[in-house]
Structure formats: structure tokens, C-alpha cells
Design goal:
Layout (H helix, E strand, L loop, with lengths): L10 H34 L4 H16 L6 H5 L3 H5 L3 E4 L6 H6 L4 E6 L6 H9 L10 E3 L1 H4 L4 H5 L4 E3 L2 H8 L8 E4 L2 H5 L16 H9 L2 E8 L6 E2 L4 H9 L6 E2 L13 E4 L13 H8 L2
Parallel strand pairs: 1-9, 2-5, 2-6, 3-4, 3-5
Antiparallel strand pairs: 6-9, 7-8
Helix pairs in contact: 1-2
């Protein structure tokens, strides 16, 4: 299935899409910086004890409050679809994955490539049917869930920790809520790709296959075309290395006008058929390799 043909967006709607996409990119860029400066301000009581407290207060409040999924908010981001000229191809034969989820079956959705920010997956969440919008959790690095401000901006997409224990708990729910969206290449994949070359970090990523076999959950492959072209990133240096360790981007990235604003490149979301994984409670390395190679 694909999306219906759309008319070319008006200049106003295109601009609105740019503004809405910038909410995510600018938050992703400035939130860690703001958190760092808030800490420095609080420690040194600069410019004053009261001033430091006021400056740091939003960070403190965000740190204490958990992120909340917001399917209603996602509807407001519909202009993103026009800004990126987003489209999707979802294979529904012979297995209708969404139909199976409605019946109570759940899946691990394995998506690649990562990109600086997954604008393609963001668009897919925006256009999703009501029962799927904001209800399928995305597994992310724990560092993102602990980053004030950013965790609430991105939290509208229903984020959970990508740790094995967290994923196993979620999979036990079954159905739509028990389905998990995973970026299997992780942060390592971000620093391999560029506008000119797309590299997938997959050969060493076998944990999701092992988990799927242990839990008897099938895997649905998803490819996010254009995800690595909307934003570029500095791949080397101290911040790049720190980003890899913390599993969150702390290095400079840019797009339109060399600013942290996404380019309006074409995005295409392609979802394939389930791989057909069985349940193996104690899979051997041979079992894992066999189904990983599919």
C-alpha cells in the first residue's frame, strides 16, 4: 500500500513544515548545550544564586518529569509530510502486519538507516492511523531518556529504553502496544553515512535477532530512504567520540543554510514482509546467524 497522490504544497504550508521540523532539530541541538550551561550556572551561582536558579528551573522540572507520548500532538505535525514530500510503501501481502497487530500479534520493527534525526520515521508516525499513532514505542538509548527538555520533545513519539529488560517487558504486552520500533544500527550507524554514501551497521547487530527468537516475535524490516540526506554530521573529533559512547548526538550537525535545520529532501518509508522467525528459547549462535542473514 502507498499514500495517495498529493498536490504540491503551498509556500505557506512548506514554510510551516520547515518550522515544525526545526522544533525537533533545534531541540536536539540546543537541549544538551542548555543542560550543560545550566549545570555550570548552578555550580558557580552565575550571574547570581537567584538568576542561576531561574535559568536552571526548566531543566530541573524536565529532569523530574517523565516523557509522555502524545498522539494528539502528532496530528499537528502533518505539514512535515509536505515539506519532505514524504511517501510510504507498506507490503501487506501475503502477511498484513498491521492487520495481525490488530488481532493481538506483535513484532519487532527493525529500521535502518539511523540518520541524525529520523525524519522519515517521524513522518510515518504523523500519518499513521489513529490506533497506531504514538502507540508503538520506539526503543532508544537510555541517555536520551535522561536528557532534560529533549526527552519531552521526542517523548511524544512514545519512547522506551532499548535495554533488553525494557524490550522484553514491552513485548509481553502483545498487539500494537507490544510491538517495538528499533533502530538496529544505533548511533554507530549515524557516523558511517553521509549525503553521498549510505552505510548500514548491521553485521555486528545481532541482539535484536536473539531477543526475537527467545520471545517468539517476528521481525519486520523497514528501510528509511532519505533519512541520512536531510542532515549532515561531523564524524570525527572529541564530541563525535563522546556521542558514540553516550549513544546520543553531541556533535555539530547541519542541513539547510549550514544550520541545524533539516533539508527538504524526499523521504520514503518502506516496510517489508516479516522474516518468519520461530521461537527458540535458547538460540545457538548458529541459529542467530542463520536468521540474521535473512
Amino acid at each position: 500500500t502507498t499514500m495517495k497522490d498529493r498536490k504540491s504544497p503551498s509556500d505557506a504550508r512548506w514554510f510551516l513544515g520547515l518550522v515544525l521540523s526545526s522544533i525537533f532539530t533545534l531541540s536536539y541541538f540546543f537541549a544538551p548545550i542548555y543542560a550543560l550551561f545550566s549545570l555550570v550556572s548552578l555550580v558557580f551561582r552565575w550571574p547570581s544564586a537567584a538568576g542561576a536558579f531561574v535559568f536552571t528551573l526548566p531543566i530541573l522540572i524536565s529532569a523530574l518529569l517523565p516523557p509522555v507520548a502524545s498522539p494528539t500532538t502528532l496530528k499537528m505535525f502533518r505539514p512535515l509530510v509536505d515539506y519532505f514530500d514524504y511517501d510510504q510503501i507498506i507490503e501487506s501481502k501475503p502477511v498484513d502486519v498491521r492487520g495481525e497487530m490488530r488481532k493481538g500479534r506483535n513484532y519487532i520493527v527493525a529500521a535502518q538507516p539511523h540518520g541524525v534525526l529520523s525524519m522519515c520515521a517521524i513522518c510515518s508516525a504523523v500519518v499513521a492511523e489513529d490506533e497506531f499513532r504514538g502507540t508503538i514505542p520506539t526503543g532508544v538509548a537510555s541517555a536520551l531518556l535522561r536528557t532534560p527538555i529533549l526527552k519531552h520533545v521526542m517523548g511524544i513519539f512514545n519512547l522506551i529504553s532499548a535495554s533488553k529488560s525494557s524490550l522484553k517487558r514491552q513485548l509481553q504486552k502483545g498487539g500494537i502496544q507490544g510491538t517495538i520500533f528499533l533502530y538496529v544500527g544505533g548511533m554507530a550507524e549515524l557516523f558511517l553515512s553521509s549525503e553521498e554514501e549510505e552505510v548500514l551497521y548491521l553485521k555486528k547487530r545481532k541482539g535484536f535477532i536473539k531477543l526475537a527468537l527467545e520471545e517468539g516475535i517476528d521481525v519486520v524490516p523497514v528501510y528509511l530512504f532519505g533519512n541520512t540526506t536531510v542532515l549532515s554530521v561531523i564524524k570525527t573529533g572529541v564530541l563525535a567520540n563522546l556521542s558514540r559512547k553516550l549513544q546520543v548526538s553531541l556533535t555539530y550537525f547541519w542541513g539547510r543554510w549550514y544550520l541545524p535545520i533539516a533539508r527538504d529532501e524526499k523521504l520514503l518509508y518502506v516496510s517489508g514482509q516479516p522474516l518468519g522467525l520461530p521461537k527458540i528459547e535458547n538460540p545457538s549462535q548458529q541459529d542467530i546467524d542463520k536468521f540474521h542473514n535473512k
